[in-house]
Amino acid sequence: MRKGLVWLLIAVVLAVGAAGGVYWFNNNFVLASRTVRGGYGEAALRDPFLAAERLIRRLGGQSGSIGGTGLWRKLPPPDGVLVIDRFGNVLDPRRQQAFRNWVTAGGRLVVVANSSLLVRRGVRSKGFLAALGVRLKLARYDSKHKPPETVAMHFADYPQAVHVHLSPLRYLEDRSGKATAAVRWEKGYGLLQYRLGKGVVTVLSDIGFITNRQIGRHDHALALALLLDLPRHPHVWFVRDVKMPSLATLIWQRAPAAVVAAALLIFLWLWSLGGRLGPLLPPAQRPRRDLGEHLEAGANYLWRLDKAQRLFSAHQRRLEQQWLHKHYALRAMTREQRCAWIADRTGLAPDVVDEALYGEYRGEREFVELTRHLQVLEMAL
Question: Judging by DSSP bridges, how do beta strands 170-174 and 134-138 pair with one another?
């Protein structure tokens, strides 16, 4: 009976403790949800205009991103808009003319001025953008001059100004004066627009405001919609790079299995060359040559090279330094006094000493004679 009461008391204590713990936990902790940003996804990292494409789709348009290979295979119909980031890479006249024909047929081209439009002395810009009169200039950074945060753009179909952030280090110039619309920015323009046939070419100094990182700031999303003239031109294609890939890249994209098979075949062929068909032969023992033959061959080579001028000049300088190091009195003397002093101690004439230490030779006879005099000077040290 007592044992049952003890277990009952223990059960009551545990139940009261559990209820108290639940009551304390509910009064001291709150269940809440939290959103954690995981950074850009793989698609956003690969496509800098992914946010702009999704914005156009929400506005009822059709948008996509294509690479240089797909663009050159077939240009889209001329009833839409092409937004090209690196148009300066297009230097082929045929491709430039293809873009011009596409715009003339009614297409709208939005490009960023690249290094091909830079104003340089002695260098003439190429391409139909340069023919329109567009030039790019780079401004130097000045810590004293603080540029405005944004530039105000005015569109005909929108009553208010649209504020867009542009790089203060880049601005455009209209050399031809044929621009139908322009936006002032710093010392030039941030936007220039030209009519070309039935289409329109819009050149920007900076396109960073419509990338994934910047499109949510200021009025960038609204500026993009007005710039592309949505929804009247609902078809928009973003081109990341118009540069044609190399032949190796194209082969790898089209036939990776063939490339791997060829590499494996070459590896097996090289591996088969290492196989031996018989035992290794012992290394041939060549007779040792006389040291005199090596010295004679080296001397003949040096004479053919520069008639041993470098070797002889180095020997003259080394011998002169040895005399100066051993006899400090020679350092304070002139060249004539030094040669006379050495001549008294070697038995040679002063002019012979001067010719030996500082002279040059023209033929083999003079070389032998000067070498003999240098030997006398070296033995007299």
Answer: antiparallel
Could you give phi then psi for residue 238, rounded to 5 degrees?
-100, 125
Token look-up 């041993």 returns: 308
CB within 8 Å of 49: residues ≥ 6 apart? 65, 83, 210, 211, 212, 238, 240
Tokens of 304: 């053919």
In this structure, the dihedral spanned by the alpha carbons of residues 254, 257, 260 and 263, taken in order and rounded to 10 degrees, is -80
Q: How far apart are CA 355 and CA 3, in angstroms?
A: 128
Integer-rounded Cα radius of gyration of the chain: 43
Residue 283, token pair as written in the block:
């290394």
Is-above-0.85 flag for pTM?
Answer: no
Q: Is 197 left (phi over 0), alpha (psi -120 to 50) or beta?
A: left
Sequence letter at residue 184: R
Are 105 and 199 in contact, with CB atoms under 8 Å apart? yes
Provide block-wise average pLDDT over 10 residues at a time, the chain (381 residues). 72 83 82 73 72 80 67 71 70 74 83 74 66 78 71 80 82 80 80 84 83 83 80 76 64 83 89 77 74 80 80 87 86 87 86 86 84 85 78
Cα–Cα distance measured from residue 338 to residue 354, given in angstroms and rounded to the nearest whole number = 9
What is the DSSP code (8-state) at residue 139?
P
